[in-house]
Write a structure and sequence with these properties.
Helices cover 43% and strands 16% of the residues. It has 212 residues and is of the alpha/beta class. β2, α2 and β3 form a beta-alpha-beta unit. α5 packs across α6.
Length: 212
């Protein structure tokens, strides 16, 4: 029953849950689970060196712990968005807990960076009914992914590059802040995409994110 209702709600509001974009040669590098005190600054340095913008889906409790890193994300022109407060997998019907996770994360992002965002990626890609209601009301826009780097599972530079070669224009590429493998793979990955004529971009205003 829950899966049927979920599919019905998504069919009514197709722009409220994004898995892939129609973007020609643009691809979208995204990072989950940060900000990380060591890896996130290194990723930012690599992105800056290549003149590339990305999207960081941050955990609220991590923003509270490392506010300077969160501010650095936005100061360098990247998109910052929500990825829950605590990264819990919530039950399908946990409306109160889900909305607390949304709102606490959104508020700490605003407080620390000055950015108001409705972009949200659920932990594990686990879309629950409260999230769909939130999206249907226009209070959030769910951003999933079309290609997973598997960086958190493999911790392998070679494996990440292999997954990156599957990316085509419009794809949203899932990575994580909190491992060394993606940091090591990132320069080669960006170079390969550029050689293929792909432009790596951040998700922006058309996806529900507003800057300062």
């Amino acid at each position: 029953m829950a899966s049927v209702l979920k599919a019905f709600v998504l069919s009514l509001f197709p722009r409220r849950a994004v898995v892939r974009k129609k973007s020609g040669n643009r691809v979208y590098m995204t990072f989950d689970d940060g900000p990380h005190p060591e890896n996130t600054p290194r990723l930012l340095d690599a992105l800056k060196a290549h003149g590339v913008k990305a999207t960081f889906f941050v955990q609220g409790e991590q923003v509270a712990r490392y506010p300077d890193v969160a501010r650095k994300i936005t100061e360098q022109g990247h998109t910052i968005a929500g990825h829950s407060w605590s990264h819990r997998r919530l039950p399908q019907w946990a409306f109160r807990d889900a909305w607390i996770e949304f709102d606490r994360t959104r508020e700490i992002i605003r407080k620390v960076t000055g950015v108001e965002t409705i972009l949200y990626r659920p932990p594990y890609g686990w879309v629950t009914l409260p999230m769909l209601v939130h999206a249907a009301l226009g209070r959030t826009r769910l951003i999933l992914w079309s290609v997973d780097s598997d960086d958190d599972r493999t911790r392998s530079v070679a494996a990440i590059l292999t997954r990156g070669r599957q990316v085509q224009g419009g794809d949203i590429f899932l990575c994580h802040d909190d491992n060394d493998a993606i940091r090591e793979a990132l320069p080669a990955l960006l170079n390969e995409w550029r050689a293929r004529g792909l432009e790596s971009c951040a998700l922006g205003d058309d996806d529900g994110a507003q800057g300062k």
